[in-house]
Amino acid sequence: MQQIINNRYLIIQQLGRGGFGDTYLAEDTHLPSRPYCVIKQLRPIINNPHTYQLVQKFFQHEAVILEDLGNSNNRIPHLYAYFAEQGLFYLVQEYIQGQTLTQLVETYGTINEIAVREILNKLLYVLNFVHSRGVIHRDIKPDNVILRKSDNMPVLIDFGAVRESVGTQFNTQGHAVKSEIIGTQGFMPPEQAMGKPVFSSDLYAVGVTMIYLLTGKNPLELQTDVQTGAIIWHPYAINVSAGLKMLLDKATAYHTSARYTNAKEMINALLSLNSIGGVDPTIPIVINEVETIQIPPEIRGWNWGAFLLPGFWSLPNQVWIGLLCWMPFVNIIMRFVVGARGNVWAWQSRKWRSVTDFKANQRGWAIAGASVWAGMLSLFVLLGFIGIMTDDGKPEPQQTPTPALTTSPSSSL
Questions:
Q1: Is residue 202 among the annotated active site residues?
Q2: pLDDT of residue 257
Q3: Which listed site, 188, 273, 295, 364, has its alpha carbon 20 to 30 Å from 308?
Q4: Residue of 22, 28, 68, 139 marked catalytic
Q5: pLDDT band (50, 70, 90) for residue 233
């Protein structure tokens, strides 16, 4: 007999099991389409009824934070519901269809540098948002990053704070006396292993995750420098550029003071690295699920210059498909195509000094396009006005009087 939780969620299969509880794939039977969702069943550490109430309050607080994160960023699963049943706590979350980074390596082997840079950049933007909310993930690892099937975006799952809430022990005065360490050995840094995570702890985990993609090695398989504590991974990544090696070395430094202080700083370092090159063009692309050219999120969107002046815009931006706009039968369709995809295509087809330089160039084309169309519209209005005034100034054509018909006497009866 299949299990139903909360008289609503039909368990399909178990997805995982950990020290804090189990994870299931389920169907929501209260909705007509019976969509999939993920059920996290959490087992709290309870000493007495009073402790249960404290843990429940802590759990609810963390669930509210998780709901806010999911509602504010589409690369964090939505929280649909949370509740307690038979002494257990439950989270109901959005089901993300795709493959984890672990599955990616198991399928394709080591991942090439260009793809890793793309994943890293997108993941850092999510992490920058999470940290801006004052939240530390605490358990970033390949299993907790899913490349969403619909758009190849990395989705960050399984935040550690909720698991910590059910693993905290309280005394009779309501004070926390013991909290379980959240994290995965090899991916969490030393300070987190001592129960003192900071924002750069997540950056360390991200860096180790990228090293795993590049080398295919679990961090527990890698040696560390006995003097500095640095992870020795370079011998397993001979095709990786020196620039990316330095970036990941800094992210995974043993001491927090030697790392990037926040995700934004690491994003800027990565963008600077991309702008000066450093990628060996002979490295083959081994996966096609991930975009191979770095596309900064801030340049995505509608391109008015490409839409308004597609035939001219395509030449300096080297987007040759836009030249189809000179063909009368496809002009209108291609305008919308290059308007929607112009920013991505232009970024991929040319080397730009920076994102700022790219945005300034596209802004100039948008202004030029608006000026040309405004000028043409003004000209049409002026010509129309002149035409109307010309018609009003012409003299009325004189009408020739029609002679009156006369009836001769002979025609009378």
A1: no
A2: 95
A3: 295
A4: 139
A5: very high
